[in-house]
Fold:
Amino acid sequence: MLALVATLALCSCRVDPSEVARSSSVVIDETRDLLWVTSPDDDRVVALSRVDGREVHRISVRGGPEQLAWVGDRLVVTHGMDREVSVIDPSADDALAEIDRVALPCGSSAGIVAIDTETAAVACPHDERVLELSVSSREVIAHDVAGRPTGLARREGTLFVAAARGHVASIDLATWTPTGTSGPPLRVGEAASQLAAITVSDRGGVHAVYQRVELDTDRDRDPARGGYGAVIDGAPRIEARVLGPCGDRYVRFDGGPLAMSGPSAIAAEGGLLWIVHQYTDNVLVARCDDAGDSRGGTLEVIATFRTGRGPRGIVLAEGGRTAFVDVGFDWAVARLDVPEERATGVLTPTWTRRRALGVTSLSANALRGRSAFFDAVDTHLTPSGVVTCGTCHPNGGEDGLTWFLHTTGVPRKLRRTPPAWGARTSLAPYHWDGELRDAAELARLTTHELMEGDGLLVDFDAIAAFMNEVPPPPPRPSEAEPLSRGRAIFLASGCADCHVASESDGLVHDVLPASLDPDARLREVNTPSLIAVRTRAPYFHDGRAATLRDTVTVPDDVHGRTSALSPDQIDDLVAFLESL
Structure:
C-alpha cells in the first residue's frame, strides 16, 4: 500500500488502486513506526521515530532530495538538483543505502506518487513533463504537461497535476491522456502563482493551494498606496487561497493568527483540511467535508499552529487529527494534534525534534539569508505578513509573471520577474535596465518599495549571499548532434557577442522594437544569463515572447542575426538554448 496517502493506511507494501495519494517531503512507515523525511540542504534522507522524532537512520542521497513515496516496498526519492531518482530499501536496516538510481529525461524532479507497486508518476517542473517510471525495469516514458508541473495527487486511476503557473491538470492513468483541465477561481485581470501543493482527501475531493496575485488590474492606482506588501481596507494584492470544494478564502492580514503566506503543502482526511505556510511558519486546520462550492466561499478554521522556520511538507495520521510537519529551514519535524473543540489562539506542536545537520550546499551566511528571503513574519520586512522575496522568486527562481510596478519610489513600469539566482555577483548589474550593481542594495530597495518594510535589523548582506549561492535549475540531457549544430549557430548568429559563455556581458543593449504598451518601453535592456533559459518563459523584460523560438525570430535582426536561418536551423538553435 502507498505511504503518501490521505487515509494513511500505509505500507503493507502494496498499492490499492482505490486509495488516494499525494506528493510530500515526509511519509510514514507503518511497518517500522518511522517517519521518512528528505533533507536537501545536506543531501540526506532521514528516518525518525514516529513516537518522539529521534533520528534512527540517515542515508546520503546526493542531488538535493525533494519528495518521496512508497512504490511497493521501496522508497523512491526525487531530486531538485539532479537528473535521477533514488531508490531506497528500508528493510535493509543497518545496511541502509541507495540501492539504485534511475536516470530521467529531465534536469530535476519534484512531486512523486505511486501508481501501483512497480510504477510511479514523477513531475519535472522545469521541463514541462510528467514521467511514467517503472522502478524495476527502469523504463521511463515522458508525457508533456504545460505550466510547470510540480505537485501530484492520485485518486484511483486519475492523476492530478498541480501546475505552478496556475492550473490543475487531470490525467487518465490507463491511457495517459487528459481528462479535463480546471483552473483556480480567478477574476478577470488576476493571476495565480505557486500552485504546487495538491491533495485528494479520503472523501474524494481534490484540493490545491496557490497565491492569488494582482498584476496590473488598476494602472491608475495611486502610487502612494504602496507596493505588494500593502493591505488597503483589508484587501492585500497577494493572497493565499485554496482551489477546492470547501471554500477558497481563509487568511486575514491584521497581525492575528490568520496572517498566512506562502502555502507550501496541503493534506486532507476525516473532514479536516491542513494547509502549511512556508513564509509565515504556520499551519491552518479547517473543517472540510468536500461538499459545497468554492466560488467566494470561506473555509471554517478550527485551529492554527505555529511551527519553526520554513515548513514545507506534511503527512497525516489518527484519522486526520494528527499531522507530522517537515520544518525545512529548522531541519526538524513537528507533531501537531488538533483538539476536540475549536481552538482559540495559536497552538504549539506536541513536540518538535530538530535533527543534526551535515555539510550543507549553502554557506552559513546564505542559510541565514534564505531564512530572511522567505520571511513574512518579520515586520521589518513586511509589516502585514503578506509578501516575501520568495513570493515572486519561489525557491530562489521566478514566478513566470509580468508585473506592473508603481510606487512613490518606483516609476511606473511593466517588468517580467527575473530569477533571484540571477543576482549572483558575476551577473551584475541587476534589474532589466542594469541600474543596480550591488545585490544587498537590490534587496534593500525591494523591501522598502515593494514589500512595505522599513528594513531595520535586516541582514541584506546575508540575503545577497543567498542569491549569490542558490543554484539555477540543472540542465536536462540533450542529444549531441542538434546540440553541436545549435552551438555553432549560436556563435555564428552573434548571440555570443552579448551572452558571453551563455552568461552576460554586463552591458545594456538596444535589441528590441519599442512596445505598444508605454509602461513596457525600455530603450536598452541589460543582458540576462541564458543558463536554464528553458525554464523562464515568457521572455524579455516585458514577457512579450511566449517561447524561445519567439526570442530568436525578432524582426530586422536587432536581436541576433537570425533572419536567414532555416526552420531546421532555428530548431537546432532552440535545442541548444534549451540545453543550457
Notes: The longest helix spans residues 480-492. Residues 1-18 have pLDDT under 50 and may be disordered. Residues 57 and 70 are 17 Å apart (CA to CA). The domain at 480-578 is CATH 1.10.760.10 (Cytochrome Bc1 Complex; Chain D, domain 2).
